[in-house]
Amino acid sequence: RPFHVEPTNIVSVNDDVQRVTDEASAMNKRIHYYSRLTSSAHRALIAPDHVLPAPDEIYVYSPLGTAFKVQSCTDGHGKNSSIVTIFMIWNTMMGTSILSIPWGIKQAGFTSGIILILLTGVLTLYCCYRVVKSRKMIPLIDTSSWEFPDVCKYYFGSFGQWSSLLFSMVSLVGAMVVYWVLMSNFLFNTGKFIYNFVHGINVTDIVPGTNGSNKVICPGAANGHPPQNMSVIFYSVNDTGFELFEEWWDKARTVPFYLIAVLLPLISLKSPSFFAKFNVLGTVSVAYLVLLVTVKAAHLGIHVECHWFTENEFFVPEFRILFPQLTGILTLAFFIHNCVITLLQNNRNQENNVRDLSIAYFLVGLTYLYVGVIIFASFPSPPLSKDCIEQNFLDNFPSDDIMSFVARIFLLFQMMTVYPLLGYLARVQLLKQLFGNAYPSVLHVLVLNMLIVGAGVAMARFYPNIGGIIRYSGATCGLAFVFVYPSLIYMISLHRAGQLTWPTLIIHIFIIILGLANLIAQFLL
Hints:
The protein is built from 16 helices and four strands. By secondary structure, the chain is mainly alpha-helical.
């Protein structure tokens, strides 16, 4: 009898061939998309001619968060499990905004702050759903390799392309400015701690603070104006060397300029891939901050009193008119809309995307709530006022505090490795659009980098308020990527399909108005 193949086996073989063909096609589409984001000379981030990379070999950059290569526990076909996908989204969103959440809660009021964190998390999550589904609503076009800026270009033409580039640059440059301010802060306090320890100098803070081994200080009160992200001044007697050190080691006048010698050459490198190896430091830093907050709260105790609308010497009202300052910070704290498609397209079970994204947002919101609420509640009032909570809550701990010293070291090193990656992405996005080449010449790159670095130095020198910088940049880029574009695209797609209803129209117009009001309020309060 001749060799006989069962029809079921033929179907099975055909299905396997089709599956492999589809996977190869999808890989090629991803290569085509990401090759547009990379310089042809940068071989570390583009595919070799003879290799089809797995779709998990993708670099993802998050404003004010981390920059990392999307690669983890895959199933052998370049797909991630739901747990890995959830962790990557959490890791991407958890950025330096966490340092300003306690200050934001103080500005909004304790009860109002908790409510706003929950509501903003839900609203940004809904808008993130709209981003994820936006490309799937485009008929008769293969959008498997598209990112959200491509969707904006499809619906709004060149205006959508250039406006998305503009708001993306706002988020990136804003992140780099915040990084420069924080790196100056951490470097200053680290250098102060090391100098005092090496020389055996005992200094006395002239700022108000608590006594004991777990000291908390109020830097803003020493300067005679509301708390700002200013330097802590120390008092020393008959010590010329110490006075000379303080003259040349100043958080605003000197330290921001010292960073130029290290970071300007690093962001001018063609290949940033080496720095992506340190992305694990972002997770370690957040984990350590959570530990620090827990330990400090255990020693300081809880200090909360309810004053719903009236001012108090030591406590702030539960509801304050300054609440938009927190919503501006939260818009960026929950911002992942420009890279969420990349993260979710590697999920093994695409039908779980909504669930996994929701879980990730829940964990991010829980982390922000935990750090913000614990720092606010444990801040020792009295003797200090809650108004003393700084825009970077680590500034409420003196430079000789051991746990804060370790946190600053972690964050300083992490930011110095992420900063070149953010600079690379800013260079690729801007110069690629303007000149068709991410590295047109050394002069082009040097001028762009000097402008970005100059902005960081200027802010660290004259406006070192990370909460203010975060809320301005967050409300600006969030207006486009979180509120306006997802809502407009959803309404346009429904209108073209003849499915747009009045309730849907009213709801999404209201979302757009909220985003616009959020931006305007940042400049009024």
